[in-house]
Amino acid sequence: MAKSPETIAREQRLAAKLRENLKRRKGQARARAGAEGEAPAGRPPEPSGKKT
């Protein structure tokens, strides 16, 4: 069964958006990984739950 021109155009647009999204997410992941390696080793965060 042949796809209509509208369906083909829609699939191409979706594929392009998915590629853009993947590139953006990979860039974000790389930035997070790079930031983790460069972060100074300050004191550890204090526990959120206080025991009384």
Structure characterization notes:
The chain is mainly alpha-helical. The protein contains one helix and no strands. It has a domain at 1-30. It has one helix spanning 5-38. The model has no long low-confidence stretch (mean pLDDT 84).
Main sheet summary: none
- The run of helices and strands is H
Approximate helicity band = 55-70%
Assign the structural class, choosing from mainly alpha, mainly beta, alpha/beta, alpha+beta, or little secondary structure.
mainly alpha
* Uncertain runs: none
CA gyration radius, whole angstroms: 22 Å
**Oligomeric state of this protein:** single chain
Q: State the end-to-end distance.
A: 71 Å
**What's the overall geometry?**
elongated
| Mean pLDDT over the residues | 84
Strand content: under 5%
Give the key terms.
elongated, about 50 residues, mainly alpha
Overview in brief:
This protein is mainly alpha-helical and 52 residues long. It has a domain at 1-30.
Write the layout of secondary structure elements.
Blueprint: H1 5-38
